[in-house]
Amino acid sequence: MDSDCAILWKAKLEALLGPRWAVRCSHVFLAEELAQLREGLWPRDVDDRWVVWLDGGTLRCWRSWTGTCIYETKVAVSEDGTGVAAMLDVLDDPDSYRRAGTDAGELERFESVLPLVWRREDEGDALAGVSVLGG
Question: Which one of 18, 49, 59, 77 has the largest count of C-beta atoms within 10 Å of its C-beta?
């Protein structure tokens, strides 16, 4: 994580403001995933569309272009380091975000954002997941 980038983003991000649409989710996080979420996903260029950060026990996802918080959930961490998000609050303001029409659709959107954090970790090694064959 680029700490200067994180510091700049943290200073301007706000919690989820406005009307909320609560979705039951029961998403389970591995301890390693929570560690990555605590480090956060911080945009490096204009192609990075999301900011994701677990701040204490609250996970939030913002659109990087607007700084608008779209998703917010409390994560309950157990003794083994894993965590569970039981309810997901989704911004319910059509002027700022066009949400999915169903809970399942919105959960799919939320769960498609999270792997961006895991993939960012793999970018540190240019050959991550590549097998080199000699010949």
Answer: 59
Structure tokens at 9: 């983003």
The answer to whether the CB of 84 falls within 8 A of the CB of 75 is: yes
Q: Which two tokens stand for residue 18?
A: 């406005």
Sheet of 50-55, strand order: 20-29, 83-91, 69-77, 58-63, 50-55
Which amino acid is present at 101?
A: G
Q: Where in the chain are the domains? A: 3-122
pLDDT tens for 58-108 read 999 999 999 999 999 999 999 999 999 999 999 999 999 999 999 999 999
Distance CA 90, CA 82 (A): 23
Distance CA 36, CA 46 (A): 22
Amino acid at 121: E
Query: Tokens at residue 64, please?
Result: 């990087």
